[in-house]
């Protein structure tokens, strides 16, 4: 925005835009682009060419309700299980609404036709996985690591005994009610 | 009831209506490497707590896993030795669960596509009536996957806390999943023993169960043969091969007992208590665990190449893992060693089995055979009976034997050339064992155990004996019978037998020596 106001100010002063451009052209990472590519009115100071695969205007279309599968119902047992797995309390009204919205957002994926397409689970799939030599290069920093927690016992980290079992559902509801107060 | 006294469960004579056990094993083998699976910190046992921990192992933010090539090679080697198909492309996943010794909250494993699948382990155990026949069995290997080990928790119940040591966190493991092809504790123990020998021969795992390098969990169920499999329980906390058989057999009997009483077996995890010999339920797992498996986003797929020809251009040859190269470099496996010993030395399969089963015994046997002219067939008994029983008595390994292969070879040569009798040889061996360092010759000379084979001298000795007991000789004459026989007398008390010395009785000479010791 500042650029535009500058050029318009310059223009008002009678200096043409064309003359201004060469001196303000930036060298980005040693890449020097010819003047012709900087003709775009929307991106006058970018040195990258506009990729033809990217549309010039937004083509975003909102997905309609009827395109989506029926909204997922989340029974109390499932909420319970999710809370245990994630160790996150979200049993409040806001929490459940947030969860429903998140699921609805992800439901948009159902609109895409994936027949015959291998799922991609890593954008690194065409890279060769680097294999390291079996030589000792790290470790031996017990002192540093043991300074991180609040308390340690004789060079050991301290944890509660086993996993503390989550209180029963009724107790948890009661606990949440109290915490909200 | 103790396992020893109860009839073996693997009896092939079970009646058709009896419940039989079904056993599947999940084995975690710690990879023998200098550094961990995804970090460059050292792999070690009994180091000061948390001294072998890198930032990645402690799950500090900003760290990334970098795969250790040695671990990949170890997994491929193990897969090839177990006749698996090696997946050229395998993937890494995260398995999420909360526990203090898993600082990241997830374990990196290979759940979807592991590095090796569909293998087979052939094992044998001594069966038959006298338990001296080699019985061959196989078990299918479902898959072998690479995964991270967790840290160690030390439970301090008094102060109600757990102390965490992360030295073991991140160490590379090979998880071997076996199909439920076994039916009792003995088979499982034999399979694990064979796997231990294979891994030790390959060098991919040292297989020491007491140090936790090899951990076995057993999935046990019972059913009527031909019917669907029963509910299974998982038995954990088995710290030695000996306990493995006992734990599995106990669990099978327990489940049979439950069903016979009309109950149902619960799908649960049980721990083996070595003191009582029983399995006890572990802390309730709160229903089925949901591990929320997801692909590991920081690791692209692992590619291993079939052979040198399939290496694409631009890939560094030293970087890549090539299956064919690894296959060519495989050392001799225990089953091949056993066959080779039988072929080369004409010994029985069960002897070969015993040799391979004991660490260092094959080398010992071969060293003795090299240094003596005796037939290996006649040497094997000494090694598998005399030597081994003395080692077992003192719970020693072959490397701790006070009698070296050369010393034993010397003893056998002396017996072979007639210097000593076979019963004396056994005596000498025991003496050599007790006073380590003494050679056979020394012991024989010291205790004058050598055989005299000069006829003139024997005649002189016999004459001396007869001369020194005139009263008995005259008594003998009155009885008018003289017996001439050659049997060994082992009783040594005051009366003497008079024989007419018309033969060279080696034993008589020895007897005479014993008598001279007693009577002065």
Automatic annotation (TrEMBL), chain A:
Keyword annotations: ATP-binding, Ligase, Mitochondrion, Nucleotide-binding, Protein biosynthesis
Job description of the protein: Allows the formation of correctly charged Gln-tRNA(Gln) through the transamidation of misacylated Glu-tRNA(Gln) in the mitochondria. The reaction takes place in the presence of glutamine and ATP through an activated gamma-phospho-Glu-tRNA(Gln).
Family: Belongs to the GatC family.
GO cellular component terms attached to this protein's record: glutamyl-tRNA(Gln) amidotransferase complex; mitochondrion
Listed HAMAP family: GatC
Record has ATP-binding as a keyword: yes
EC number: 6.3.5.-
Species annotation: Myripristis murdjan (pinecone soldierfish)
InterPro entries referenced in this protein's UniProt entry, alphabetically: Asp/Glu-ADT_sf_sub_c, GatC
Gene Ontology molecular functions: ATP binding; glutaminyl-tRNA synthase (glutamine-hydrolyzing) activity
Subcellular location as annotated: Mitochondrion
Superkingdom of origin organism: Eukaryota
Gene: GATC
Biological processes per GO annotation: glutaminyl-tRNAGln biosynthesis via transamidation; mitochondrial translation; regulation of translational fidelity
Record SUPFAM superfamilies: Glu-tRNAGln amidotransferase C subunit
Protein name, per record: Glutamyl-tRNA(Gln) amidotransferase subunit C, mitochondrial
Pfam families linked: GatC
Subunit structure, as described in the record: Subunit of the heterotrimeric GatCAB amidotransferase (AdT) complex, composed of A (QRSL1), B (GATB) and C (GATC) subunits.
Enzyme class: ligase
Catalysed conversion reaction: L-glutamyl-tRNA(Gln) + L-glutamine + ATP + H2O = L-glutaminyl-tRNA(Gln) + L-glutamate + ADP + phosphate + H(+)
TrEMBL record, chain B:
A Pfam family the protein falls into: GatB_Yqey
Enzyme class: ligase
Residue ranges of every copy of the Asn/Gln amidotransferase domain listed in the record: 363-475
GO molecular function list: ATP binding; glutaminyl-tRNA synthase (glutamine-hydrolyzing) activity
Example GO BP: mitochondrial translation
Catalytic activity: L-glutamyl-tRNA(Gln) + L-glutamine + ATP + H2O = L-glutaminyl-tRNA(Gln) + L-glutamate + ADP + phosphate + H(+)
Main location: mitochondrion
TM segment ranges: none
Matches recorded under SUPFAM superfamilies: GatB/YqeY motif, Glutamine synthetase/guanido kinase
Name this polypeptide is given: Glutamyl-tRNA(Gln) amidotransferase subunit B, mitochondrial
């Amino acid at each position: 925005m500042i650029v535009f106001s500058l050029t318009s100010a310059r223009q008002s002063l009678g200096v043409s835009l064309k003359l201004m451009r060469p001196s303000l052209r930036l060298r980005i990472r040693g890449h020097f682009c010819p003047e012709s590519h900087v003709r775009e009115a929307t991106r006058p100071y970018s040195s990258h060419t506009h990729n033809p695969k990217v549309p010039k205007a937004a083509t975003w279309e909102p997905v309609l309700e009827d395109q989506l599968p029926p909204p997922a119902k989340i029974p109390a047992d499932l909420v319970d299980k999710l809370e245990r797995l994630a160790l996150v309390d979200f049993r409040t009204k806001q929490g459940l609404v947030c969860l429903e919205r998140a699921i609805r957002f992800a439901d948009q994926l159902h609109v895409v036709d994936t027949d015959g397409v291998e799922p991609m689970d890593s954008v690194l799939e065409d890279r060769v996985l680097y294999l390291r030599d079996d030589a000792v290069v790290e470790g031996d920093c017990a002192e540093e690591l043991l300074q991180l927690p609040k308390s340690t016992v004789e060079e050991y980290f301290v944890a509660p005994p086993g996993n503390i079992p989550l209180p029963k559902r009724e107790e948890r509801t009661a606990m949440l009610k109290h915490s909200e107060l | 009831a103790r396992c020893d006294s109860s009839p073996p469960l693997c009896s092939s004579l079970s009646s058709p209506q009896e419940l039989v056990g079904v056993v599947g094993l999940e084995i975690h083998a710690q990879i023998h490497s200098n550094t961990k699976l995804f970090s460059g910190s050292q792999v070690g046992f009994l180091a000061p707590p948390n001294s072998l921990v890198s930032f990645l192992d402690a799950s500090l933010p900003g760290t990334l896993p970098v795969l250790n090539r040695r671990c990949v090679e170890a997994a491929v080697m193990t897969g090839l030795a177990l006749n698996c198909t090696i997946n050229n492309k395998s993937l890494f996943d995260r398995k999420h669960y909360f526990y203090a010794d898993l600082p990241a909250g997830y374990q990196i494993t290979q759940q979807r596509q592991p590095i090796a699948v569909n293998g087979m382990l052939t094992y044998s155990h001594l069966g038959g009536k006298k338990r001296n026949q080699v019985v061959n069995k196989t078990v299918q290997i479902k898959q072998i996957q690479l995964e991270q080990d967790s840290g160690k928790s030390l439970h301090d119940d008094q102060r109600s806390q757990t102390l965490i040591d992360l030295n073991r966190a991140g160490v590379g493991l090979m998880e071997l999943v076996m199909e439920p092809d076994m039916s009792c504790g003995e088979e499982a123990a034999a399979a694990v023993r064979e796997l231990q020998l294979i891994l030790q021969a390959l060098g991919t795992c040292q297989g020491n169960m007491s140090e936790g390098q090899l951990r076995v969990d057993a999935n046990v169920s019972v059913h009527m043969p031909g019917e669907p499999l029963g509910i299974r329980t998982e038995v954990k906390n088995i710290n030695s091969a000996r306990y493995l058989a006992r734990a599995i057999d106990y669990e099978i009997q327990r489940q049979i007992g439950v069903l016979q009483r009309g109950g149902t077996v619960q799908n649960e995890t049980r721990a083996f208590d070595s003191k009582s010999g029983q399995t006890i339920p572990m802390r309730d797992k709160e229903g089925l665990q949901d591990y929320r498996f997801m692909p590991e986003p920081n690791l692209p797929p692992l590619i291993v190449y079939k052979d040198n020809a399939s290496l694409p251009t631009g890939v560094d040859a030293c970087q890549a893992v090539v299956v064919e190269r690894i296959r060519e470099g495989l050392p001799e496996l225990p089953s091949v060693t056993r066959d080779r010993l039988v072929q080369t030395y004409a010994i029985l399969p069960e002897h070969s089995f015993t040799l391979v089963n004991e660490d260092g015994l094959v080398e010992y046997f071969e060293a003795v055979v090299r240094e003596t002219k005796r037939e290996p067939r006649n040497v094997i008994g000494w090694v598998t009976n005399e030597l081994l029983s003395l080692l077992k008595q003192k719970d020693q390994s072959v490397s701790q034997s006070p009698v070296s292969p050369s010393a034993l070879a010397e003893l056998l040569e002396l017996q072979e050339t007639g210097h000593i009798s076979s019963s004396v040889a056994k005596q000498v061996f025991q003496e050599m064992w007790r006073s380590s360092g003494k050679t056979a010759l020394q012991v024989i000379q010291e205790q004058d155990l050598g055989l005299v084979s000069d006829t003139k001298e024997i005649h002189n000795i016999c004459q001396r004996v007869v001369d020194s007991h005139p009263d008995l000789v005259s008594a003998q004459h009155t009885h008018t019978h003289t017996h001439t026989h050659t049997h060994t007398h082992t009783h040594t008390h005051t009366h003497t037998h008079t024989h007419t010395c018309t033969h060279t009785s080696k034993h008589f000479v020895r007897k005479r020596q014993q008598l001279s010791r007693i009577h002065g």
